[in-house]
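Bench log, entry 3. Co-assembly request; chain sequences pasted below exactly as received.
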Amino acid sequence: MRSLPDRVAQIVDEVVPALLTAFIIVLVAADVLLRNALGRTVPYGIELSTYAFVWMVFLGAAGASRKGVHFQVDLFQERLPERVSRGLAAAAQIFCAVVALVMTHTSWEYAMRSWNRTSEGMELPLGYFYMVFPASFGLMAFAHALHVWRALRKGRAS
Amino acid sequence: MSTLLILDLVGMIVAMVLGVPVVFAVLGAALFYYLSGDNTSTLVMMQQVQTSLRSFPLLAIPFFVFAGTVMAKGGIAERIIAFAYVMVGHWRGGLAQVAVLNSLIMGSMSGSAVADAAVDARVLVPQMQRHGYSLGFSSAVSAASSLIAPVLPPSTSLILFGLLGQVSVAQLFIGGVVPALLIAIVCMTIVNIIATRRNYGSVRSASATGPEMASAFRACFWALMMPVMLLLGLRSGLFTITELAVIAALYTLAVSVLAYRTVGWRELWDILKDTATTTSTVLIIMGASAAFSYIFAIERVPAHVISGLSAISENKYVILLLLNMALLLLGMIVEGAAIMILAAPVLVGIAQHFGIDPVQMGVLVTLNLTIGTLTPPVGIVMFTVCSITGCRVGEFLRELAPFLCGLIALLIALSMIPEIILFLPHWTAL
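Structure output for the full assembly:
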């Protein structure tokens, strides 16, 4: 049975990106259909779909951190002694957590500065769209910190 | 180029080789530069990341990924293998030839080498082994033939190169068609030579009859129409790449749901989740690399690279050979998508300076970096195939050698004779 934080994380970084993918497909398809059939477009279709796409990429990337499926080179670790390999993997996770944490701070600052600017079409404050950056980097930092903690616990147990 | 940037690049590559995920190695290196520099701010870095991703044409990538995933999960792969079996199963080394033809057809739908290699490794390698083919050869042919996919439309690499280098994606797509066919011919020829020497026989006693071929064709007719539709759509010029991509996504879904009845709600949900994950893992690297590309612009890297190359030679063929060698070596140690994203604007600058057609450059770079996926230490296709088939890397590399030589020879031919790539885009006047 998965814990509550795990389930919440799964909804945010796996279910929401999948729904956003469906939303983008439907929106762009409707736009193409309307334009070719009636010569009209979905209001704010391009703007909505591109922002939804950015959200999908960032939240999906947070999910990739949680599931450990980001692209990486793992040939050398497999050839090293197990203790060294485990140490290296933990160091890599710490590096990721630190980078994600710094990016959380940077993107938070960036999002805060964008509340007084509005999007071109819908004229909504850009902060609404840009809050996905600190949220996703925060989730990534948490996921990598969790991987380190789990690796340490596993190491101690073995 | 400053010492800081050189240290940064070395640090980034070392981090990748030590197992740090590519996106964090690139972001870490970019952060290090922006935090150490005098005139830059991390807010500029965030600006670069978000601007690079807030692009409507980029939406073509998740749409094509969705279409490819529907094809892979909708039972279409099995129908295409059955079709390939009927068409080339009677040739010498029949099953290996089936693997190559399957890669050609599947590649024109998925655009992904890994997806295609995984299908061949899972379905065809066990069959090849039962027919007495060595595990190394079966794995090598599955991996080598999968290189067709990234060069054919709807290739993600070509879309990225087009968008980052401001080159027509339609022209790149059309320009990839002949090289992809040539990769198939190279692989089939090598299979034929090895099969003759090792006495690997055919899997059918005789060539298929007309009704057999018609029946196999009918079974996958709707799937085979997707690449045709894509090329006609590109040729017509009525749709943008993003629009074509969404049409392809809906078309594959309609074929799997209505014609083949292999995709239900549960499968659709899994496909959406897979699409989001695959797209995110590639495009987050693009966002991170955009921050790094801006550093290249600040440091005037393209100008330095061009003046460095000009000092060696002004001959475009010499430059192409040098670039090919550098990219082949780099592709062995750094993930191809990251190199493509970081280097595309620089490479287009080089192409313009030396009078190389950017479409030729795009197709060459894509093929070059894809060859890197076959070799250690970053060979994602090699690892995918070896982990599925259980083949040892040493044995795989031994059997891969002739294919690798053939592919590199093809790369050199494509560099020296640009018309091979360019005649089709020029002929179709895209």
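Chain B has a mean pLDDT of 87. The longest helix of chain B spans residues 265-298.
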